[in-house]
Write a structure and sequence with these properties.
By secondary structure, the protein is α+β, with helices and mostly antiparallel strands. It has twelve helices and four strands. It has a four-stranded antiparallel beta sheet. Helix 3 (55-81) packs antiparallel against helix 4 (94-121) and helix 8 (278-296) crosses helix 11. The N and C termini lie far apart (115 Å). The model has no long low-confidence stretch (mean pLDDT 89).
């Protein structure tokens, strides 16, 4: 037997002939054979005695893998890493996860089926297959039907195979041989030089395009736009500034301006809308220590931490300061007083009211009454006499 022989091929003209040929070949005990036709022929799989394809197992495994990945990812994201309550639903709301699970299941199952069929079952790409570019393959791709028995079949015998094919009365019988393998050395000087030139050319063109060309006219239209940038000069306005202050007197939609701006001692002030809750007092302490303590001290005693750089303010524990209403303290923070500037642009309204509540806590702590001590002793379980 010729070692380069791939097998014998036979051409038939009708579907009935190729089905009969498949039956006779299978009954003869051959395993390494195949049928080629220009379109799927009904009943050919039974005639060839083909077993059920294992491709379905690949589809099943990757489909279940897609379901598991989708469910685990959504569970980890929504229940462990970043739990979110949406519309009162539980963290792991399975009905809401079904669409994504279905999509990923179908995606992985489909891709695995196609890729597995092409690579593992069809063994593509197989560009050096002996049947490529043969007259046999051209005809079975058009209007003929073909049978091929490979030489690697354990029952293959040239004489017996030819006798079998002749008994099937085909249009023609042909021997197919493996093509001679051609090798192309990769490290040839010409090829390596060509790769180096391509790399240099690509790098040069890329560098020029990204670092030079994009900074030339007219490609700078995205970089040099006629707009005003923050902290930049502008020739559009007479003062040379690009950033503009809001037009005086304008009010943002849904915003009510402070009604007592510019008044040193308004006769009427706002009422404190916030209760001194634990969260509110924590916010007030944080903002007080940031904005107020540098001048007023950590406890409001007027012992500035600025070491004489500015005049020390009065103590927040004086009778006058303790008699201020919450609205008056809020007014001083918002409007400013004497050398103290306004903090309206630095501290939000909620934070200003939180500072007011925290100042009240400092004042109460420094000027505690006997009733306060009784409440503390009662809560701590100690005797007032001690």
């Amino acid at each position: 037997m010729n070692k380069n022989l791939y097998g014998f091929v036979a051409l038939f003209k009708t579907p009935d002939e190729i089905i009969e040929a498949a039956k006779k070949t299978a009954e003869a005990g051959y395993q390494k054979y195949d049928i080629h036709s220009p379109y799927p022929v009904h009943g050919i799989d039974r005639a060839m005695k083909l077993k059920a394809s294992k491709l379905g197992f690949i589809t099943l495994v990757f489909g279940l893998t897609g379901s598991a990945i989708a469910l685990l990812l959504m569970y980890w994201t929504m229940s462990v890493d970043y739990p979110m309550i949406i519309g009162g639903k539980p963290f792991f709301a399975l009905p809401a996860f079904v669409p994504i699970t279905f999509e990923l299941t179908v995606l992985l199952a489909t891709l695995a089926t196609v890729i597995g069929m092409i690579t593992f079952f069809f063994r593509f790409p197989e560009n050096d297959h002996p049947l490529h570019d043969t007259e046999y393959m051209k005809k079975v791709s058009c209007d003929h039907y073909g049978l091929v028995i490979e030489a690697k079949d354990k029952l293959f015998n040239e004489t017996k195979v030819r006798e079998l094919l002749n008994s099937l009365r085909p249009l023609s019988i042909e021997e197919i041989y493996y093509p001679e393998k051609e090798t192309y050395p990769v490290l040839e000087t010409k090829f390596v030089t060509f790769l180096i030139l391509i790399a240099l050319l690509t790098s040069g063109v890329t560098y020029f395009a990204l670092n030079k060309l994009l900074y030339m006219q007219p490609f700078t239209w995205m970089m040099d736009q006629p707009k005003l940038n923050p902290q930049k000069q502008s020739t559009l306005f007479a003062d040379g500034y690009g950033m503009r202050a809001p037009v005086k007197g304008t009010v943002a939609r849904g915003f009510l301006p402070y009604p007592f701006t510019g008044q040193n001692a308004p006769t009427d002030v706002l009422l404190n809308p916030y209760l001194p809750t634990k969260e509110n007092l924590q916010l007030g302490e944080q903002k007080y220590l940031t904005f107020c303590s540098p001048c007023h001290g950590n406890f409001g005693d007027g012992d500035s931490r600025l070491r004489g750089q500015f005049p020390n303010p009065p103590s927040l524990h004086s009778t006058r300061a303790r008699e201020f209403s919450d609205g008056m303290i809020y007014h001083i923070i918002t409007n400013g007083q004497n050398v103290m500037p306004s903090y309206a642009s630095q501290i939000t309204r909620e934070e200003r009211w939180a500072i007011v509540n925290y100042i009240r806590v400092l004042q109460r702590a420094k000027n505690a009454k006997s009733s306060d001590l009784q409440v503390v002793n009662k809560e701590t379980g100690t005797n007032a006499s001690n």
